[in-house]
Specification:
The protein is α/β, with parallel strands linked by helices. The protein has one domain: Divalent-metal-dependent TIM barrel enzymes (TIM Barrel, Alpha-Beta Barrel). Helix content is 40%, strand content 17%. The chain has an eight-stranded parallel beta sheet with strand order 7-6-5-4-3-2-1-10. Helix 4 runs parallel beside helix 6 and helix 8 packs parallel to helix 9.
């Protein structure tokens, strides 16, 4: 199974695509996901072909991506034009780089409280995806929509994919973001695995509070997710999909689901998935407060690198992932 990482894991370094490829080669991974359009010095064809050639020379595969393509999401930016123009750009970039996917997302948890709720935002995203259908099919690129930052639960993302068209739309499966929609990552895997085209993998520590539960993202092996079981099932459901690390350690969020007002954004939540999440929280142990030194960018850069490299080692030594010898 191919092993790689998302450049967001080491975003504090501010590296562009060529530097990231050199770093990926030094880690002996197989794939790099460039999850934003700012990682390139240019979106011109010639420059992108040069990046592609460099990746090929280093024995690396590129997955290309961007941010929100939902025009009604609070996370959407018009920096790259309309939502349709934005998606068309990332599909073109993906084709030039030889990427089989164009990763993108709807928005975040706040969209669940927007007018019409997440159902309306899903419909808006479906329309944008369908605007790029012919371009994506002609380019041989599939649009990979992520379960992102608490926006959609797994079944909701499947609804988006099926309505848009499974012939050219699939999923960026994020194990960490599953916990932000009150799902057990293994349960999310069962639903999303057959739809997965690319991934964003990280661990989560989960523990109960008097009002609900805390979730903290961690490096792989430092949280409460049984990744031995996860990778075994992953190999059955989507063995050809690269295992791409998106390590965002230390980010902690409280989910006060025992408070009545909490459930307003989740009017259609599924009890079975939530029960699995509660079971995870009950097994977890409370973690100490986490904080990096303030006003120390070098410390942040080093921390991100250390946590990513720690996760790469865990994937190799414990999970047996990666096509290249470590």
């Amino acid at each position: 199974m191919k092993l790689g990482f998302d450049n967001y894991s080491i975003r504090a370094l501010g590296w562009k695509a060529p530097q990231l490829l050199d770093y990926a080669a030094s880690l002996k991974v197989d794939v790099v996901l460039f999850s934003d359009l700012d990682v390139y010095d240019s979106h011109e064809e010639q420059y992108l072909k040069e990046v592609r050639a460099k990746a090929s020379a280093l024995g690396l595969e590129i997955h290309a991506g961007t941010g929100s393509i939902c025009p009604s999401s609070g996370t959407f930016s018009n920096r790259f034009g309309t939502a349709e123009e934005h998606l068309a750009l990332v599909v073109r970039v993906a084709k030039a780089l030889g990427s089989p996917v164009a990763r993108c997302y709807l928005g975040n948890a706040a969209d669940r409280l927007s007018e019409g709720g997440i159902t309306a935002r899903i419909q808006d995203t479906v329309r944008v995806c369908q605007s790029a259908r012919r371009q994506a099919l002609d380019a041989g690129v599939k649009i990979a929509v992520e379960n992102h930052a608490g926006d959609m639960q797994a079944w909701e993302l499947i609804t988006l994919v099926e309505e848009a068209g499974r012939d050219f739309v699939g999923v960026t499966m994020d194990s960490g973001n599953a916990t932000w929609t009150l799902e057990d990552p293994l349960g999310s895997l069962e639903l999303l695995g057959p739809y997965a085209l690319t991934t964003g993998i990280r661990d989560s520590a989960i523990w109960e509070s008097p009002e609900g539960a805390w979730v903290r993202w961690t490096a792989l092996g430092d949280g409460d997710i049984d990744f031995r079981a996860y990778v075994s099932r992953y190999a059955e459901l989507c063995p050809k999909v690269p295992w791409i690390l998106e390590i965002i350690p230390g980010v902690t969020r409280h989910f006060p689901y025992l408070q009545p007002d909490f459930w307003k954004p989740y009017q259609h939540a599924r009890a079975r998935e939530f029960a699995k999440f509660v079971a995870l929280a009950r097994r977890g142990k409370a973690r100490e407060a986490f904080k990096l030194p303030e006003n120390d960018p070098l410390a942040e850069q080093q921390y991100q690198k250390d946590q990513l490299e720690r996760s790469v080692r865990y994937c190799r030594q414990v999970l047996g992932l990666g096509e290249k010898p470590g």
